[in-house]
């Protein structure tokens, strides 16, 4: 039996911009973000079945929000009134919670707690929590940022992202960096294993048995990593690692190495090596922009899955653990997927700079 024909859906420029903003809110407004993604995919011409498959929902759910949006546009994506007890919070109280959260801090503190704000406004702490969740407010969280001051910021972003999204032919692109001072840490008491109802437990104090540095080169196409352990990370050590990279790569291929602006990467001994190896090209990331170097994502995996909870009674034990991690990773290598193009990144930086350049800053 033929399915019910879907209703055509088109978006104005303002509606698309609003929906794209809602769709990227993530955890702060998951329900609205999910509905916005449904509408955006519908507007791209996908039928209900394709949208449902893409987002992991049912066709009826897609049809419901398609029809709600066509009938009521953006207002149709909100929740309809539900039966139940009468609302006890007034609009004025909700506004006061939001305004105080955004514009004030309690005396002697840097941010509001639910109980403090509830006592000030005269409502329950659970009501404050619901208001914060509805408006995506998280006063207990803070994020750090650093805007690059590199005069070649835009050129370097286009260069590095271009290598990720459109690598040259007959070439290999490697994301390279060092992870210095990896500590061989032994806890002062034996680690107690996880049991039903009880997580793994460990002492907060430890004994340190030395440190080691790890050089890593991530092949952005295959996900495989060339690694080298070193007692230091001097310019000569970086040169030796470049030499190891050169001998690992298939002969005849151009080698594009993405690295940061560390002085050891620009030392005379490195320049001399590069002159002797004309097929190797260094590409530098902007200053204060380690996030653009894909090998940092690999280092994060190493830290989370092997080092944070690792116990190493000697430097040799740490060395073996790192070598085993490299071997295991390369046996199951998978590349990281870069999704943002240079224009999107530059645009996001520009919008952020505009936000922090107002009178309040």
Automatic annotation (TrEMBL):
Segments forming domain Tc1-like transposase DDE: 181-318
Gene3D superfamilies: Ribonuclease H-like superfamily/Ribonuclease H
InterPro entries per UniProt: Homeodomain-like_sf, MscS-like_channel, RNaseH-like_sf, RNaseH_sf, Tc1-like_DDE_dom, Transpos_IS630-like
Signal peptide: none
Entry GO MF terms: nucleic acid binding
Pfam name, any one: DDE_3
Top-rank taxon: Bacteria
Name recorded for this polypeptide: Transposase
């Amino acid at each position: 039996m033929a399915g019910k024909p879907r209703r055509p859906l088109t978006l104005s420029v303002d509606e698309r911009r609003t929906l794209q903003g809602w769709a990227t809110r993530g955890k702060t407004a998951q329900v609205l973000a999910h509905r916005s993604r449904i509408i955006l995919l519908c507007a791209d011409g996908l039928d209900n079945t394709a949208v449902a498959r893409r987002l992991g929902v049912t066709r009826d759910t897609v049809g419901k929000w398609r029809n709600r949006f066509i009938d009521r546009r953006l207002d149709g994506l909100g929740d309809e009134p539900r039966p139940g007890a009468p609302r006890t919070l007034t609009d004025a109280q909700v506004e006061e919670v939001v305004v105080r959260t955004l514009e004030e801090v309690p005396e002697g503190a840097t941010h509001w707690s639910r109980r403090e704000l509830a006592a000030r406004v005269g409502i329950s702490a659970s009501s404050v929590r619901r208001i914060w969740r509805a408006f995506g407010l998280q006063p207990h969280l803070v994020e750090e940022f650093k805007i690059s001051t590199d005069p070649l910021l835009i050129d370097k972003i286009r260069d590095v992202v271009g290598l990720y999204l459109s690598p040259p032919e007959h070439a290999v692109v490697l994301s390279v960096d060092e992870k210095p001072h990896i500590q061989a840490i032994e806890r002062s008491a034996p680690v107690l294993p996880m049991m039903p109802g009880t997580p793994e437990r460990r002492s907060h104090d430890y004994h340190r048995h030395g440190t080691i540095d790890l050089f890593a080169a991530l092949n952005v196409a295959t996900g495989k990593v060339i690694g080298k352990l070193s007692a230091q990370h001097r310019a000569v050590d970086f040169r030796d690692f470049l030499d190891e990279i050169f001998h690992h790569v298939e002969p005849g291929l151009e080698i594009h190495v993405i690295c940061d602006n560390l002085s050891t990467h620009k030392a005379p001994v490195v320049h001399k090596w590069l002159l002797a190896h004309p097929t190797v090209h260094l590409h530098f990331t902007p200053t204060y922009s380690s996030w653009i170097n894909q090998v940092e994502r690999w280092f994060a995996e190493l830290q989370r899955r092997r080092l944070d909870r690792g116990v190493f009674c000697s430097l040799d034990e740490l060395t073996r653990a790192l070598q085993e991690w490299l071997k295991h990773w390369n046996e199951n290598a998978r590349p990281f997927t870069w999704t943002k193009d240079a224009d999107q990144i530059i645009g996001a930086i520009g919008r952020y700079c505009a936000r922090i350049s107002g009178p309040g800053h």
